[in-house]
Structure formats: structure tokens, C-alpha cells
Amino acid sequence: MANGGKELSIDRFKCAACGACVTVCRNDALMLWGAWLEIKEERCNYCSACVNICPLGALSIASSSQMPQTQSQKDA
Ligand code: SF4
Ligand code: SF4
Question: If you take atom 8 of ligand 1, which residue's CA is the nearest one?
């Protein structure tokens, strides 16, 4: 994995498609298609600029080793 195990994810229930993250990303890793935010993760260097600027806290960067347990794992 080229990203060091990191992952940029979006909470689509929180995102209001304001476009602030698209504007701040220097790598053109984010694109808005109408109300749909697309993440081109292969362009992302995980600088956190988009995470910090999002007024709704819709973006987050996680390390796969720190991913929380999913509900299905807890139920198993
Ligand atoms: S800044 Fe946040 S709310 Fe605005 S488009 Fe990006 S993820 Fe969505
Ligand atoms: S973490 Fe940085 S490079 Fe990645 S999408 Fe956000 S602003 Fe762009």
C-alpha cells in the first residue's frame, strides 16, 4: 500500500457539498459532482487541509491499524 495504511474518508450524512475542501486541496484529490464529493485517494498525501477546513467535520483521516471495531465484529 502506497499510502502508509492511511485512509481519507467522508461521512456523507454530514457533507453539505459546500466545496471548501475541494478549494483547499492542492493535489486535486477532491472533486464535487453536484452534491457528490469524490475522493481521488491516489492523489492524496494526507496533509489534513481538507479535514481541518470542513465546517461540518465530514472528513477524517484514519490509519487502518487504528480503525475502530465495526458493529458486526462486536456482534459476532
Ligand atoms: S468541506 Fe466538508 S461539507 Fe464541504 S464539501 Fe468538503 S466534506 Fe463536504
Ligand atoms: S488530505 Fe490534503 S491532499 Fe488529501 S484530499 Fe485532503 S487536502 Fe487533498
Answer: 15
Query: How do residues 30-62 score in pLDDT, each as one tens digit?
Result: 999 999 999 999 999 999 999 999 999 999 999
Alpha carbon separation from 47 to 3, 40, 52, 56, 57 (Å, rounded): 12, 14, 10, 18, 16
Q: Which three cell numbers stand for residue 31?
A: 472533486
At residue 38, φ and ψ (nearest 5 deg) are: -105, 135
Provide the whole-model pTM.
0.83
Q: What fold does the segment set 6-64 form as a domain?
A: Alpha-Beta Plaits (3.30.70)
Q: Cβ neighbours of residue 28 under 8 Å, at least 6 residues apart? A: 40, 43
CA of 33 to the centre of ligand 2 (A): 17
Amino acid in position 30: L
